[in-house]
User: Fold this.
Amino acid sequence: MRGAEPIFLPGAGNAAEIAVAGEAALCDRRGALFFPDLGLLCVSDLHLEKGSSFARRGMLVPPYDTAATLLRLQAVIDYYRPRIVVSLGDSFHDDEGSSRLPSRMRLDLSALMAGRDWFWVSGNHDPSPPAGLPGDTVEALAVGALTFRHEPSKKSPPGEIAGHLHPCARIVQRGRSVRRRCFASDGERIVMPAFGAYTGSLNVLDRAYAGLFRPDGLIAYMIGASKVFAIAGAMLRPG
Assistant:
């Protein structure tokens, strides 16, 4: 640290290199987490068919969220070519979202799933298995030292990979405030950013995160337009 200036820690680039419970991982700027040694790609909170869910309640929004999310998902899968994909809960915005998936998008998603192990982790929005889609639905998934689940828990041992909270971080530098989605980690666990196109975010300093991270170990891997920036927790601001 130089004076009071925020320091962009090692890992500024299209993906930040980190370790979670000793397992090497890449925080991709598109919001996916890739474990090279496991051939495992993890995404969280896709919230597919959120637009159609809103429309059913009379809240009209542009119906492009699912298409945009699937295009980004295809891009990260094509890039990393994982053997295993874990969708970390709230893959659909409600329990009937998979039934509303347009046939063309259902075919596109099925094509992405072909030839690899695919796990749907149950979320609070979508506790049931997605209708008409392959893959295994699980409450949680253990892979080596890692445990993948939707909602983080302060009681979990090191190695937890979770979503649900849609983390973001805010810094102020030279009088300018910057707020971005982020991966939040202290090296023992990580909370994933929401991958979906129509998803909000919650500051990592919010009390909802209390007890999840070591106070002196939190790093927010902030997602920029073309890079991921690792920001020490001491430089983060609420809001």
